[in-house]
Amino acid sequence: MVTHSIIMRPYKDYPRAYIAKHDNNTFESHSDPGHDTSTVTMEVISDISKAINGEYDAIHCYEFLIYQTANSEMRKQIIEIRKDEIRHYQTFYNLYLTLTNTYPQVTLSKQCPPNVKSGTVAAFTDEQETVDFYHEIARKTNDPHIQEAFLQAALDEQNHAVWFLYFMKDL
């Protein structure tokens, strides 16, 4: 059974109040007028949207892996990994909403691999590629909230990759 509902929580550390879109396709955000101003480009907004959809795909495919594996240790760990992916999804979703005042378009864009072995290999590869992508996003902006969110998620993704590599040895 695949569940597609993901509970959204407000991104409590990111102010919604002062968001300004400029003609040069950047967004300016700050919590108080004249303080802590950050600029976020449309490229970063697009990357956040891509990250949201990537997390959504991972959440879906990891649920599939959870039900496919007979290994209870693997199942338990993938459940924990999936919880991290849901947290990342919620964080990125709320960042996007806060920055643009619009909801992101969320769709499943990947077909889950058909079995545990190919799913584990695909998950390992995806987690590794995601680490690089999240570091890239963090480097593209001077917004400390976005940087922190993506650097923390990158750490989690690297940890996930290690777990999937560990499980690959037994497949």
Element layout with pairings:
Blueprint: E1 18-21, E2 26-30, E3 38-41, H1 42-68, H2 72-100, H3 116-140, H4 144-168
Antiparallel strand pairs: 1-2, 2-3
Domain count, please report it: 1
End-to-end gap? 24 Å
CATH topology: Ferritin
Gross morphology is elongated
Structural category is: mainly alpha
Instruction: Tell me which CATH architecture applies here.
Output: Up-down Bundle
The proportion of residues forming helix, as a percent range, comes to: 55-70%
Overall residue-averaged pLDDT value: 85
Show unreliable segments.
1-20, 30-37
Major sheet details = 3 strands, antiparallel
Radius of gyration: 17 Å
Q: What's the name of the CATH homologous superfamily?
A: Ferritin, core subunit, four-helix bundle
Count of runs of 4 or more consecutive helical residues: 4
Tell me the β content. Answer: 5-15%
What is the number of beta strands? 3
Strand order of the largest sheet: 1-2-3
